[in-house]
Amino acid sequence: MTDRGTLESTIGEIYRARDADDIDALMNWIDPACSFRIVGTGRLGPITQKVDDSASLRATLMALMENWDLTGIGNTGLCIEGDTVFVHRAGTVRFIPTDTRFDTEFVDKFTFRNGRVVELTEFVDTLSVAEAAGLVAPESAQGAQAVGLAPASAEGIHA
User: Fold this and answer.
1) Which burial class, exposed, middle or buried, applies to 131 when counting CB atoms under 10 A from its CB (0-12, 13-18, 19+)?
2) Is residue 57 classed as helix, strand or coil in its secondary structure?
3) Is 79 a residue whose pLDDT tops 60?
4) pLDDT grade, residue 42 (50/70/90)?
């Protein structure tokens, strides 16, 4: 198990490499057998498909860097359990092709082995991502329609 200070430092280096669009520095922290996915429905296409080989992961991370500016995002919390690190992040994201910006928050889950990332899972607001990328109409274009959900009730909720 890696000590907390080393994991915190490594996370900082990973995010600095991402912010600098330095794919080589980023890949230095990633194990060749690392898996990556953004949690969400397959209807969003390749953005939510799991990749687990080095060439595909590199291409996916390059595409994310070319399209998404995360320099307005900062870490707001860090939880370390063994070799797994959860990072809560918040701020402004920019979709580069259209210069669309939106405020969001998300969680990155890193799993480390021998000092390198072997699994990276991102939990993001996929609706905001889909809107920014033009995959679905933004809420403002849909009008002020109610979604049609019943009022909240504890009835029928099971722990």
Assistant:
1) buried
2) helix
3) yes
4) confident
Residues 86 and 75: their CA atoms lie apart, in Å, by 10
Q: pTM score, two decimals? A: 0.84
CB atoms within 10 A of CB 74: 11
Mean of the per-residue pLDDT values of the chain: 88
How many other C-beta atoms are found inside a 10 Å radius of the C-beta of residue 85?
A: 22
**CA 79 – CA 132 distance, rounded (Å):** 29
DSSP E strand stretches across 16-159: 30-38, 68-81, 84-95, 100-113, 116-123
Q: Per DSSP, what are the bridge partners of residue 36?
A: 51, 120
What local confidence, expressed as pLDDT, does residue 6 receive?
Answer: 95
Task: Walk across the sheet containing 68-81 and list its strands.
Answer: 30-38, 116-123, 100-113, 84-95, 68-81
Environment class of 61 (CB within 10 Å of its CB; exposed 0-12, middle 13-18, buried 19+): buried
Reading phi first (left if > 0) and then psi (alpha if -120 to 50, else beta), residue 97 is in alpha
